[in-house]
């Protein structure tokens, strides 16, 4: 995680197909990636409280070597995913332990963790770690796949109770998901007798997020297939804008300004500069 280190091995980086899936879905999920021995320690660590980190702290400042969170971030698969998404030396925007108490009777409103954020060529990711098995009634994080590029202002989506295609996270202990900062999400009501824990870290990149993953499969057909995913909530008209937004993000991530998915950005960026002589 530090600039001195060699960085994660290539085999732990995400593939191009996984990155394209992240660009389409706005998330990347890794089931049971944290070993059981760490999951068993996690809840007492979270109950004791993870020391506050200043906004924009480095990983070294926020999580000293040997601390639980540092150990979590040094797991090769997690280090590889963080590197692929935001690169080396990300900053800690903030972190938080999110607890949904047993039988708490309330869901969070659907929201994005941001005011309207208009960046097209950079994004933050939020790591969410679930140390316990999360069942459907435990208030796992709900999210709406493909919503991350439909820019909204924080809880302005709070009136939407359910959106077609939404997912409520159900997962085995030790699961980590990475969410694009713009995704519509919210903790659900916990109707179970078990208090649900989740630890979140938001990372800000400090390098251009360009080709940071394992690019061996960049030209594989799966990449375009992932980028073309359609989600059930897309309207016929506005849904098209999501393909344009994805094209632009993939162009930025690959450093190829001419990249386009089916002519969407080519058409709307066509501003010919060739001036004909007046006759
Ligand atoms: O508790 C949850 O599942 C989600 C909490 C949340 O919205 C967040 O961490 O941004
Ligand atoms: Fe949130």
What attributes characterize this protein structure?
279 residues, Jelly Rolls, six-stranded antiparallel β-sheet, 8 helices, globular, binds 2-oxoglutaric acid, binds fe (ii) ion
Account of the protein in words:
This is Phytanoyl-CoA dioxygenase. It comes from Actinorhabdospora filicis. One of its GO terms (molecular function) is 2-oxoglutarate-dependent dioxygenase activity. The chain is α+β, with helices and mostly antiparallel strands and 279 residues long. It has a domain at 10-204: Jelly Rolls. It is built from 8 helices and 9 strands. The protein has helices spanning 16-25, 36-48, 59-62, 68-74, 76-86, 221-227, 239-254, 264-268; strands at 27-30, 57-58, 91-100, 125-130, 141-143, 167-168, 175-180, 185-187, 196-204. The strands form 2 sheets. A 6-stranded antiparallel beta sheet has the order 1-7-4-9-3-2. It has a 3-stranded antiparallel beta sheet with strand order 6-5-8, with no helix packed on it. Helix 1 packs parallel to helix 6. The structure holds 2-oxoglutaric acid and fe (ii) ion. Residues 98, 100, 108, 113, 141, 185-187, 198, 200 line the site of 2-oxoglutaric acid.
How many β-strands, per DSSP?
9
For the largest sheet, list the strands in their spatial order.
1-7-4-9-3-2
Can you tell me the CATH superfamily of the domain at 10-204? q2cbj1_9rhob like domain
- In terms of quaternary structure, the protein is single chain
Would you tell me the structural class of the helices and strands? Answer: alpha+beta
CATH class of the domain at 10-204: Mainly Beta
């Amino acid at each position: 995680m530090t600039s001195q280190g060699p960085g994660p091995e290539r085999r732990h980086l995400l593939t191009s197909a996984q990155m394209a899936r992240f660009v389409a879905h706005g998330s990347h999920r890794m089931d049971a990636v944290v070993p059981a021995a760490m999951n068993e320690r996690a809840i007492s660590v979270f109950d004791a409280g993870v020391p506050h980190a200043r906004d924009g702290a480095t990983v070294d400042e926020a999580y000293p070597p040997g601390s639980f969170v540092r150990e979590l971030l040094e797991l090769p698969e997690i280090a590889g995913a963080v590197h692929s998404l935001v690169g080396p030396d990300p900053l800690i925007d903030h972190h938080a332990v999110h607890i949904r108490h047993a039988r708490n009777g309330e869901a969070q409103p659907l929201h994005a963790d941001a005011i309207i954020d208009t960046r097209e060529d950079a994004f933050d990711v939020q790591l969410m770690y679930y140390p316990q098995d999360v069942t459907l009634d435990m208030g796992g994080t709900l999210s709406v796949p493909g919503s991350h590029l439909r820019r909204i202002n924080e809880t302005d989506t709070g009136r939407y109770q359910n959106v077609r295609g939404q997912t409520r996270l159900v997962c085995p202990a030790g699961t980590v998901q990475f969410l694009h900062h713009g995704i519509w999400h919210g903790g659900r009501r916990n109707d179970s007798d078990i208090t649900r824990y989740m630890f979140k870290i938001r990372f800000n990149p400090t390098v251009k997020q360009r080709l940071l993953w394992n690019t061996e499969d960049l030209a594989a057909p799966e990449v375009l297939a992932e980028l073309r995913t359609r989600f059930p909530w897309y309207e016929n008209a506005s849904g098209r804008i999501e393909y344009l937004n994805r094209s632009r993000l993939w162009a930025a991530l690959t450093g190829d300004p001419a990249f386009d998915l089916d002519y969407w950005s080519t058409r709307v960026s066509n501003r010919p500069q060739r001036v004909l002589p007046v006759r």
